[in-house]
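User: Please predict the structure of the protein below. I'd like the answer in structure-token form so I can feed it into my own downstream comparison script.

Assistant: Understood. Taking the following sequence of 183 residues as input:
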Amino acid sequence: MSNDEIFAAAYREHYWAVSRYVARRLDGRAGEVEEVVAEVFTVAWRRRADLPSSPLPWLYGVARNCLANTVRGHGRRRRLVDRLGNDDTAHGRHIAQGPETETPGAWVHEALARLSASDQEVLRLTAWEELGIDEVAVALGCGRRAATMRLHRARRRLRAEIDRMSPAVAADTGHSLREGERR
């Protein structure tokens, strides 16, 4: 197969997985998902000769870099708007969420949000993207041992956050967690 055919096959096979990956990380900014995914596959097209035989973890690594560029761009725009004094709070437009906006299991996302970006990413790659440790290593651009250690530490920190939140979680869900059930 030619490099073009390999790229086309990777695109057809992994477009939706990459789209879901990006969408979950752009939480609430659905309009930008297509732009980032297009950027990912543009990079893949330019580097189609470098596509590995199992391209999905590599594509996730490219998507991580494209997302980082997008986040940096948002930061620059936000700082500019702040300097110009043209933000919503300056003009009195506030959005209040109602009680029905609380989604089931939101406490898990809250605990995850309290972790560092690198801890969040390694946990998302294994849980959301269902990658094995070798694929996680490719996506993160590190060795297998480093990926294993990062995952272990991230799981430990997530458990600590959940344990810290457990009295609040128990109150929110109406369940009491006995010490033996938490572990």
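That's the full token string. Residues 174-183 have pLDDT under 50 and may be disordered.
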